[in-house]
Amino acid sequence: MTIQDLTNFVSDVHARVRERLATEPDMLARDAFVSLVGEYLVDDGTLDDLETCYLRAPWQRGFVEVSGYDISDDGTVLHLVTAEFGAEGASVRRDRLEQLLRRAAAFAEFCQGGQHVLLEPSSPPFDMVERIASTWSSLEAVRVLVVTDGAVGTYRPADTVVAGLPASAQIWDAIRLHRLVSSGRQQEEIRIDLEARGYRIDCLVSQDQADGYRCLLAILPGRLLAELYDEYHSRLLQRNVRAFLQARGKVNKGIAETIKDQPGRFLAYNNGVSATAREAWVDTEVAGAPVLRSLVDLQIVNGGQTTASLHQAVRKGADLTAVHVPAKITIIPDDRLESMAPEISRYANSQNAVTAADFEGNSRFHVGLERHSRSIWTPLTDTAARQTHWYYERVRGQYDVDRNRHPSRPRQREFEQDNPRRQRFGKTDAAKYELTYALQPHVVCLGGEKCFRGWTVNGSLGEREAPTADYFRHLVAKGILFSETRFLIQREDLGGYLGQITAHTLALIVGRLHGVNLELVWRQQHLPTPLAESVATVAQIVRKVLVDPDRTANVTEWCKKEECWRAVRTVDWEPSKELVQIGNWTTEAGR
Question: Taking CA 270 as the corner, what is the angle to CA 266 and CA 275, rounded to the nearest 5 degrees?
Answer without folding.
Answer: 120
